[in-house]
Amino acid sequence: MATMQAQPPLVPQAATPIGGASQFGSASLYVGDLDHFVTETQLFEIFSRVGVVLSVRVCKDLITKRSLGYAYVNYNSPQDATRAFELLNYTPINGKPVRIMFSDRDPSIRKSGTGNIFIQNLDRSIDNKALYDTFSAFGPIFFCKVAIDRNGQSKGHGFVQFEQESSAQNVIEKVNGMLLCDKQVYVGPFIRSQEREKDSGSSRFNNVFVKNLSEITTDKDLRKIFGVHGIISSAVIMTDADGKSKCFGFVNFDRPEDAAKAVEALNGTTFNDQEWYVGRAQRKLEREAELKAKFEQDRKARLERCQAVNLYLKNLDDAIDDEKLRDLFSEFGTITSCKVMKDPQGQSKGSGFVAFSSSDEATRAVSEMNGKMIASKPLYVAPAQTKEERRARLQVQFAQLHSPVGVGAAVPTSLPGFHAGAPGIGQQVIYGQPPHGLIPSQPAGYGHH
C-alpha cells in the first residue's frame, strides 16, 4: 500500500481587498484585541490619517471603567472605512496588533455561521494576521481569529468566516489536509456550541473520528473505505512534524445519516491487522466531560462495593491489636484487610476496620459481633461510611440535640441515629465514625470501663 505523500505547505499570500463595505454599506469598524491602555484620543489620531472620523468609542466596564479591549470607529463614508480596514488591520498599537472588522448592526449574518470554518492543528507561530493573509486568497473575509489562552499563546486552532459560503467550501476542499508551517491542518465547517450541545446526545453528526490505524494507512485508503457509506467531503490522517502518521484521522461526510452508517459498519473492524475504533468526532471539552462522568460513576461503584464489605469497629479494648482483631472476625469469612487505628504514640484509639471478600460475610459479622462483649467491653460493629455520609448524619444528630423538646411533644423516631424506647427522651444510638471530640467515643447506653 502506498504511503501518504506529503503535500506542499500552504504559502501565505497577499491579502485581497475585502468586500465588507460594499456588501454591508458600513462605515463603522470594530477594533478588537486592543491593549487596555489605548485611549479614544489615540485611536482617533491613528484612524484620522486614513479618512474623516466621525466618532471613536472605547468600550469600558461600567463599574471599573477599565477598557474591555475593543472599540468602534465611525467614518464619514464606507470608502474611508474600507481603506482603513485594508491599511490598519493587524497594525500594532501599544505593541499589540489590533484586529479590525466591519461593524454590522444586524448580527444575524455573523451568528448564522454562513461561510464559517474551523481550522485545527495550527502551528503555534501562526497569529491572526498570518491566518488572514493565508485564507484571504480564497475570498473576502468577514471574521478571522486564532484562539489564544490566558497567557496570549495560541491554542492551535482558529476560525475564519467568509462573506460567501462558496469561499468556505472551496477552502475546505483545497486546504484540508495540507501543510501549513510544516503541520498538517484539519479544515472543516464550524459548528456553533449550541448545535454541538444539541446534537451531543444524538446521532446527528457529520465528522467521524477513527483511531488505531496502521502506519501504512493513507488518506486515500480512508476515502476508499469510508466512501462506500456515502459522499465524503474530506478524509485526512493526522501526522507529526516529520510527516509520520499519528495513527488516527477524521472523515467528514456530507450527510449525518451516512456518517452514522459508517460508524455502525466500521467500528471494531480490522484493517492491516489493526482493530479500528470509529465514532463521532468530539471536541476536547466534550471528551473531558464524558471521561469525568465515567470516572465519577466508577468511583461511586467502587465506594459502594467497598462499603458493602468494609466494617467500622469501635469500643475496642486497648489490648486488641491487628492480629487479635483478625482472629475475632476470621470465622465469618475471608478477611482482605484488618487494622486497629492508633495515635502517633502507637496507642490504640479504640477503633478499627475489617474488610471481607464479600458483602454476605460482612453482613454476618455485623449481625453476630455488634454489641458482643469483648474483654469486658461491648463491641460496636457497623458498615463503614463515607465522609459525606458521616457529615450528613452528624448534622442531623447535632440539630436534634439542640432542638428543645417540650413536655408531651412527640419524639421523632424515624430520624437516623435515634432509637425508640431507649432510656431517656431523645437517647441516641450512634453509629458510623464520628470525628474525635464531637460525640462520645462509645455508643450511648454503654458505660465506660
Average the pLDDT over all residues and give the rounded result.
78
Q: Which fold name fills CATH's third level, the topology of the largest domain? A: Alpha-Beta Plaits
As laid out across the biggest beta sheet, the strand order is: 2-3-1-6
Largest sheet: 4 strands, antiparallel
Radius of gyration: 35 Å
The tally of helices reads 13
Distance between the termini: 83 Å
Overall tally of domains: 4
Draw up the topology in text:
Elements: H1 20-24, E1 28-32, H2 40-47, E2 53-60, E3 67-75, H3 78-88, E4 92-93, E5 96-97, E6 99-102, H4 108-112, E7 116-120, H5 128-135, E8 141-148, E9 154-162, H6 165-175, E10 179-180, E11 183-184, E12 186-189, H7 193-199, E13 207-211, H8 219-226, E14 232-239, E15 245-253, H9 256-266, E16 270-271, E17 274-275, E18 277-280, H10 284-309, E19 310-314, H11 322-329, E20 335-342, E21 348-356, H12 359-369, E22 373-374, E23 377-378, E24 380-383, H13 387-401
Antiparallel strand pairs: 1-3, 1-6, 2-3, 4-5, 7-9, 7-12, 8-9, 10-11, 13-15, 13-18, 14-15, 16-17, 19-21, 19-24, 20-21, 22-23
